[in-house]
Amino acid sequence: MAPASSSTRSSITLNINGEKHHLSVDHRTTLLDALRERLDLTGTKKGCDQGQCGACTVLVDHRRVVSCLNLAVAAEGREITTIEGVAEGEDLHPVQQAFLDLDGYQCGYCTPGQICSAIAVIEEHAAGWPSAVTEDVGAPEPPPLTPAEIRERMSGNLCRCGAYVSIVQAVSRGAEARGEARTATAEEAAA
Fold first, then answer.
1. Which pTM value belongs to this model?
2. End-to-end CA distance of the chain
């Protein structure tokens, strides 16, 4: 097989977890493959490779994206956060700690994507972004982060083990710990 011509490759710099990485990539290389195969950041999982399961969710400029559908060249110059970069040194992110405390995982395969998505969900909610179940989209402040809100907002992340009850509770606790969103009562979160 002949090597790809230079017109199909680019030299890029990716800012991942606060560190710059210089790569030469084929234009068709997904962000997921660049992370896993080129940079050995294997916390981000390859699930369906079609954008349907959310296992490969990472944060790009603080917004969640499925990295299997995003090209590495399109991420140049943007701030990328993978599961390896959400903790503050030895201190787990509040969402990571909540997942541990409340067993928001079973096999753990989807957990990195769930956690990255949950972090973005909390930020989106605190910023007042409505979801499909938000009743009053014109309210001056976000509604409580109810289990229905959490389930709707996390619906792009599948858990084949079915740990959804614990995931909803973990997202609720993570939001409380961050103090960025009004959350539902403990009874509502268990519903």
1. 0.88
2. 57
